[in-house]
Amino acid sequence: MEEKKAMPSLEKLVVASSPHIRAGETVDRLMWQVIIALLPATAVSVYFFGMRSLCLIITGVVTAVLTEALVEKSLSREVTIADGSAALTGLLLAFNVPANAPWWMVAVGSAFAIAVVKQVFGGLGANFVNPALASRAFLLAAWPTHMTGQLPLPLDTMTGATPLAILDGTASGTLPTYLDLFIGNVSGVLGETSALALLVGAAYLLWQKVIDWRIPAGFIGTVALLTWMFGGRDGLFTGDPLYHVLAGGLILGAFFMATDYVTSPITSRGRLIFGIGCGFITVLIRLWGGYPEGVSYSILLMNLVVPFLARWTQPRVYGTARARV
Amino acid sequence: MGRMVSTFFNGVINENPTLRLVIGMCPVLAVTTAVVNGFWMGVAVIFVLTASNILISLLRNVTPAQVRIPFFIVVIATFTTIADLVLAAFQPDIHATLGLFIPLIVVNCIILGRAEAVASRNTVPLSIMDGLGMGTGFTLALIILASIREILGAGTWFGLPVMPEGFEPAVVMILPPGAFVSLGFLLGAMNLITARLSNRPMGSKSQSSGSAGQKLEG
Amino acid sequence: MEFIAIIVGGIFINNYIFSRFLGLCPFLGVSKQIETASGMGMAVVFVMALASAVTWLIQHFILVPLELEYMQTVAFILVIASLVQFVEMVIMKVSPELYQALGIYLPLITTNCAVLGVAILNVTEDYGFLAAVVNGTASALGWTLAILLFAGIRERWVFNDIPASMQGFPIALVSTGLMSIAFFGFQGLFRGILF
Known about the structure:
The complex is a heterotrimer.
Chain A: H1 2-6, H2 8-17, H3 27-49, H4 51-74, H5 85-95, H6 103-118, H7 131-142, H8 144-147, E1 151-152, E2 159-160, H9 163-168, H10 178-183, H11 195-207, H12 214-230, H13 241-246, H14 250-257, H15 268-288, H16 295-313
Antiparallel strand pairs in A: 1-2
Chain B: H1 2-14, H2 25-30, H3 35-58, H4 68-90, H5 92-98, H6 109-119, H7 124-154, E1 156-157, E2 160-161, H8 176-198, H9 208-211
Helix pairs in contact in B: 1-7, 3-4, 3-6, 3-7, 4-5, 4-6, 6-7, 7-8
Chain C: H1 2-13, H2 24-29, H3 34-63, H4 72-94, H5 96-102, H6 106-109, H7 113-124, H8 129-157, H9 169-183
Helix pairs in contact in C: 1-8, 3-4, 3-7, 3-8, 4-5, 4-7, 7-8
């Protein structure tokens, strides 16, 4: 395996927690496939939000790749930008900012994601939270006005509230139709708006067996069920689950961020529990929390529980000591 | 005389309680939202540390060994209470901001540690220098960390605007994540600098942050 | 309702580690393995609940009637120190197994600022006796949750290639920072319903 020689930290990862990476499936291929799967959403984002969107995405990707190269150079390590993971982080981070975000904020976020969340811990496979999401939460706490409130409307120079903020009652406006939500003709951050484009990419990843169905199914299923039960204003089981699934960052989060190999469980049962946990926390935050959207926090919080999910769901061989994860 | 000076600078630099020994971290992270808060916290700790070192050193020959720890705690708690009341009287705003962390000086392991390790075994002048040195080292660390956080998180230093016009402060720096991450990188930078200065191979566990683990009880 | 608010607040929203900065020394020191972290957590829950009860009684039946409130710090720290000693002796006599599990952690707790912190906060928040005990327990459970999650993450570092200058405390602090970012998700939870 040439790959192993190139990435010392990865070799340890394989031993520790990633039996699913089999021979012939290198990290390069997985990462680039996720990037390919995100291209439809990228295209739709550029179509709806214009060149601003493209500029921010390029800023995010370039900064992430440069930061990765700079940090690895300064630590005298192998430069691993070709594996695509830094580019993917930059792309996902850009997907999580609104089109009217300043470019420097995207750059700071990308650099934070790579340097502070990933490289400090030892590079690919060593971070315990998803770099793009941790960085998004960091940006949200650092410059809240740039991250929330009035976001750009598609095909327009106006701004408006996101569907979830309207649903939440924190902002006023008319709720978009299901069709608008599905194709992405709504206000929101760059990559989350078009359910259709994201689902095309997700189908590709499922078909290529890059991701497992359990995390997204558990995640989206739980959100649908709980919002149906508790999301309505007229009592139990009057909520609108379809709206909650299509609006906000659920589809982007469930298929592309929660499934991140490094920060999600490896066992089938662990993945299901992970997805359900994400769904539970998302609904908790959406319905009763301080933010209109809870997808990114829910994944971050479940990232923290992954070592325990690994422990609890690990099949143990009789007569041997419990494996240390 | 040379010993006095070296005792003082030992506390400020070589054995800086915050940056080298990494003890007593709660107030370091909690009060460094602004430089002025860090400064006053440091003053309070210098006072409590030096005063309790003096008293413990004076009474070191008449303190029975079995009850020395409770005795130290009472002495430290007394001076902490004095600091608390004096701050409340003369700096009520600062007192309100520091809040809980003034009475908590009593459980700061720096102070009990110095009482046990230095004041109970050494002369009064030496204990004074140790208290002043350690306290100054603590204050210096607080001011460095608070400067990073206040400049990035509010665009000011000691309340004065220092950043250029277009700078948008990153509020997160004065929130808990900013505290943890900045202190983490500050300690990392310290490790890097000391490793460069002493030309020792980095990462050996015998180094400051590694050996500090044993002292981390409280 | 007040109790539920105290519990949710103590564990998630105003977590002692991620938002109040209390009890950091044992958090950083005793979190290398999940087993030791959970032992420490149990000991802290036990002592903080008990300390909340005892210091509340001291405050309301001794310090306030005698107008000795300024003696709070001295009185509380002495009570906590002797309480920990007492608990240690009782556990040793009553349950050797429990002593085996908690024994080595108990002496460390006296200087855990979370214990004195909760005692003082109970007074400043003007809690009643039961509310004070609930607050002590919930805050300690929040602390335990934090140290358990942290220990789980920390066990994975063994396999990581962390830059030399960041090993030890620096990386521990950066991780805690990232965890506290995740805990921001609980900000404002149940506002208007419980708070």
